[in-house]
Specification:
The chain has about 400 residues and is mostly helical. Helices cover about 75% and strands about 5% of the residues. It is built from 19 helices and 2 strands. Strand 1 and strand 2 form a beta hairpin.
């Protein structure tokens, strides 16, 4: 528990709440934990105190506290979302608790991301609490507002759990537009874990609903994601057809960022079809479009794949420059999973250039990064890559 959350629930000023929490810690009822980025001083209940509080709290009072905490988390997470990914913050938040939440104010994107990173376990706990309490508006709004956290930190199992709950909650609230967005994001989660058929079905469902609602933005987005899944399934003709359809819709809508995303995936498709020259040209354009659209994380992703294409064209020094640049940009965005993946790309580029020692160095760094992220499938793959180099 931090001061800002406690103040939101108690209704006091930050200074008064800090004095109260400090007094409780001095009385050995709370423990002072280390300060966390974006949160400041954190206090932790002793197990016995927490059990007593839960046992003696009146059910209605407990529900109201949970509601206040949830709405403050929604408001603050939405403030972070607005700063980091303003194009995603398209739904008005509604608050129905006894008092209106006053969110934290973030001075910069890194500060907002630091708060999301430190709060992610608590936000998942909040999603589960809201689901148990049937606070459906809180569930879908919180999960939707957490998009920057899903995008940057790639906690796939949490991603799927949260979005399955949010899709159900949006449906119960009659929030059909939000439901389409959340179902599309759920499909992304399925794709990240290799459940490509399940992801494909989710995107088909989104397309059907979006077409009926006249929602051209979500129609384009769902077609784009279908194209990605078809590529992963090796169905390249269908992949190209869906990606080009999505791209054309985005050109018509003058959606520069969307065009950049489509070109990124089309470039990856060119790589899968053994056409690295076309891939390099398309990915360079994708990087430029995404940079101009103000999307540094996806621009870095295009650059990382651009490095792979250039490497397969035989230009190792340029692939090294692009790969290192992409890695620096991912670190700046706190997109640590993609930063690790880019280091793996650098290893692949070196291996293909006939530089096994350089490849081993990059693979070793990528392995350490994946281990720190507790990504077991990636750890196993990197160990296999290192074994392959030494055999």
């Amino acid at each position: 528990m931090d001061v800002a959350l406690a103040a939101a629930v108690c209704g006091g000023t930050h200074a008064d709440v800090m004095d109260l929490l400090t007094a409780l810690a001095d009385a050995q009822l709370l423990t002072r934990a280390d300060e966390q980025p974006g949160r400041g001083r954190v206090f932790v209940y002793h197990d016995e105190v927490l059990a007593h509080a839960r046992a003696t709290a009146h059910p209605e009072s407990k529900r109201e506290v949970v509601h206040l905490a949830l709405e403050w988390l929604i408001a603050t997470t939405s403030a972070a979302e607005q700063l980091i990914t303003p194009s995603h913050a398209g739904f008005r938040r509604t608050y129905t608790a006894a008092s209106q939440p006053v969110p934290l104010s973030f001075a910069s994107e890194p500060e907002a991301l630091a708060w999301l990173e430190s709060q992610l376990p608590n936000l998942m706990t909040a999603v589960r609490a809201a689901t148990r309490a049937d606070l459906h508006a809180c569930v879908w709004q919180l999960v939707h507002a957490m998009w920057p956290a899903w995008r940057h930190f790639h906690r796939s199992q949490w991603w799927i759990e949260a979005h399955e709950a949010a899709v159900r909650s949006a449906q119960r609230c009659g929030e059909h537009a939000a439901g389409r967005v959340l179902l599309n994001t759920l499909g992304l989660g399925y794709g990240h874990t290799g459940e490509h058929q399940r992801a494909l079905q989710a995107f088909r469902d989104v397309e059907s609903m979006a077409e009926k609602a006249g929602d051209t933005q979500m129609t384009a987005r769902s077609r784009h994601e279908q194209g990605v899944q078809y590529r992963e399934l090796g169905r390249y003709t269908q992949s190209r057809r869906r990606l080009i359809s999505a791209r054309q819709m985005r050109v018509t809508a003058k959606d520069l960022g969307g065009v950049g995303l489509a070109d990124t995936e089309l470039g990856r498709l060119d790589l899968a079809c053994d056409d690295p020259a076309s891939a390099a040209s398309r990915l360079a354009k994708a990087h430029q479009a995404l940079t101009e659209a103000g999307d540094p994380c996806d621009a870095a992703r295009a650059k990382a794949w651009w490095s792979r294409a250039v490497a397969q064209c035989g230009d190792h020094s340029e692939s090294l420059r692009l790969g290192k640049g992409a890695h620096e940009e991912f670190v700046a965005c706190r997109a640590y999973m993609w930063a690790a993946r880019t280091v793996e790309f650098l290893g692949l580029n070196a291996k293909e250039a006939g530089l096994p020692q350089e490849a081993a160095d990059w693979f070793g760094q990528a392995l350490a990064a994946y281990e720190s992220l507790c990504s077991n499938s990636d750890v196993l793959r990197l160990r296999s890559r290192l074994t392959g180099l030494s055999s």
